[in-house]
What we know:
The chain is mainly beta. Helices cover about 10% and strands about 45% of the residues. It has helices at about 25-35, 115-120; strands spanning about 40-50, 55-70, 70-75, 80-85, 90, 95-100, 125-135, 135-145, 155-160, 165-175, 180-190, 210-215.
Amino acid sequence: MKKLLIPLLLLVLSFSISAQKDEKAKKILEEVSKKTKSYSTIMLKFSYIMDNKIEKVQDTTKGNIYIKGDMFKLFFKGNEVFSDGKTIWTHQVSSNELTITQPDPKDDNALNPQMLLKVYEKGFKYKFMGELTKGAQTFYQIDLYPENPKDKNYSIVKLKIDKAKSQLESIKMIGKEGIDYTIELKEFKPNVKVNDSMFKFDPSKFPKDLEINDMRD
């Protein structure tokens, strides 16, 4: 699985001047960003939901990620993807294949788990949409609108943020082809102990007949 934060569907044909960078939304997002960046490492467990409204099909997959700076290790759909920040290794377990690529920060479709935590930091206008209470928890709701919508495959990114923790709860991307993608964070553990070796490919830990596809330039 090479794509996680994938572009998604429309719902907004226009947005007014009020959908610029309003101050309340800005303050909330800055606090979330500040708190997230204060952690040395993060472990996330999440549910990834694909909702195809045209074919009326919904699929949910669980996964987990370890993140340390620009490095990450992702377990998703029976596969594992890991990166030391300079190289990405995608291990497709079922086919016994390993694909090697380089990160492309300009590619919105590229697998980039860090975007779970900083998708809102640049390239968007944003608007505070109100608060939502669920049980004892209160959440902020903020909508993001791409500054260059013609260059994106989605129209809106909808964030739900835990008010008490200043922590992302979910990210929903509204695509342009009738499909919505949602990532719900089920568990968030900061400052977990990880060894940097887990973010690099170690041939000794894989089958000798592993098929390796090096796609780097």
